[in-house]
Amino acid sequence: MAAGSYQLGFQITPLLGHGGLDSSGDFKGGPHPVEDDPLFRLCTENRDGGNKWVQEGRHEEAVGRYSELIMQSRALENETDILWTEEGRIQVRQLRAAAYLNLSLCFLKLKQWTHAVNTATRAMQGDKDPADPKEDVLAPEKKAKALFRRAQAQRDGFAKMDEAVKDLKKAAEYAPEDKAVQQELRLTMLALKKSAEASDKKLAGFLNRDKKVQRGDGIFSDADRDRDTSGPQLPKEPVKVSDGLWVVPKGEEDEEKKATEDEIDFEELSREISEMKEERPEAFAELQVKMAAMMAEQAALPEVPEESAEGAESEPAPAAA
Questions:
Q1: This prediction's pTM
Q2: Domains identified in the chain, total number
């Protein structure tokens, strides 16, 4: 069997001579107490069979019998021809809780820690989500067993010492006279203490590597404490990085931008041009001629090709023949 998994057990009933199912075990007497139902008898048979396998150390086979019991008990609760009483329902829940409790033992033996934790928990609160208080049917000493086994799985499987101690303390409340619980609690608390001491020792060793730490000077040197952490400083004067590229101090750049914006008042310029057009049409015409000449001169300059998406220059269009 692979670690971390288990299989359900099955009971094979042979067919009769004519090929039909054997229904001799079916109850045919109408409404009946739960103890007389065939499913209830199958549950008890699987319980006894699982217990036998556990005594013989055959825990994998026992897992199958207990798992079958759990499924049968679920089906049993849905039977409508049973004369249900509260005692009868509790009896079925107790069968199922005992099966989960025994499964936790099997999984501990098989070192399947997650299943051991889960089945011990279900033994105490059932397998419904959210938990149904009606499934809380184990006697106090049985709850102590479930907590004891869950603590073992938490400690041995996951090294969760604090969780194990918590479960064992609760188990000791349910079974204060149980010597095994008391001994396990002492051992686990001792292991938890040693684990904490080892962690403290490791931390102390780290801090004691430097003599300055031993003197109480801390783990940082004076140079580390005094070093400037304000980041790189911007130049106070314009600095040439390459041809056409300068780094200008932020304050100076802002001042130049502000000065440029202050020098050109586009609204005022537009107003003056409008007045020139109305009051001095000859001067306005002369200005138009000069502007046209400047635009023609600008258009005659050679065009610089743009870069393509890949960063390579575009090829200029071929000249007309």
A1: 0.59
A2: 2
